[in-house]
Write a structure and sequence with these properties.
The chain starts with a helix and ends with a strand. The longest helix is centred in the first third of the chain and has 22 residues. The protein contains 5 helices and 9 strands; from the N terminus they run H-H-H-H-E-E-E-E-E-E-E-E-H-E. The chain is elongated and about 95 Å long. The chain is 40% helix and 29% strand. The chain is α+β, with helices and mostly antiparallel strands and 176 residues long. A hairpin with a 2-residue loop joins strand 5 and strand 6.
Length: 176
């Protein structure tokens, strides 16, 4: 086999055809580039650690409260506004699993294990989905909280945004 490669290589070198030499040169350059790409030119900025991927519970709540405060404050008659949101639970993560089932004549055995990949921070499970926590209740305190029409607009807005029932929304007037 080695002689076959050697004779092919000698034929290419002896051949005066520029097309053959260009094709061989491009092929060799491609092989070298593939080799160097595997050695370590990995982009370290694209991989996030699991701490960065998972959302901080308090940051998520603060962001929701800020956005809701901004929306409600824009409504007519509301005035100064403060919002508090409670969530049902923290973020739920779903990881990839590998199932292996063995069956014999008289027994069956099922084994589940997480799919692990090697990252910069060591071995980590493969994250498939991450569910954000659901809103459990909302409390709005505003200047116009004593007006029934304003109260109703706020309750409708909050129930529509978070898909919760109106008995989970409280609207009150700010203490002066």
């Amino acid at each position: 086999m080695e002689n076959k490669w050697l004779s092919s290589f000698k034929y290419i070198l002896k051949n005066d055809s520029k097309k053959v030499k260009i094709i061989v040169a491009v092929g060799l350059i491609g092989i070298v580039l593939i080799f160097f790409s595997d050695i370590g030119f990995s982009d370290s900025g694209t991989e996030n650690s699991s701490d960065e991927q998972s959302i901080n519970y308090s940051e998520y709540t603060d962001e929701l409260e800020d956005k809701l405060t901004a929306i409600i404050s824009e409504m007519s008659g509301v005035g100064e506004c403060s919002v508090m949101i409670t969530l049902e639970n923290s973020t739920e993560s779903v990881y990839a699993t590998d199932s292996e089932e063995k069956t014999d004549d008289d027994s069956s055995d099922k084994k589940d294990s997480y799919v692990i990949y090697d990252s910069q921070n060591g071995e980590q499970p493969v994250l498939i989905k991450e569910y954000f926590p659901k809103v459990q209740g909302v409390s709005v305190v505003c200047s116009g909280g004593d007006d029934i029409a304003v109260k109703e607009k706020i309750i409708q807005t909050v129930t529509a945004l978070f898909n919760i029932s109106s008995n989970r929304v409280s609207v009150s007037k700010i203490k002066t």
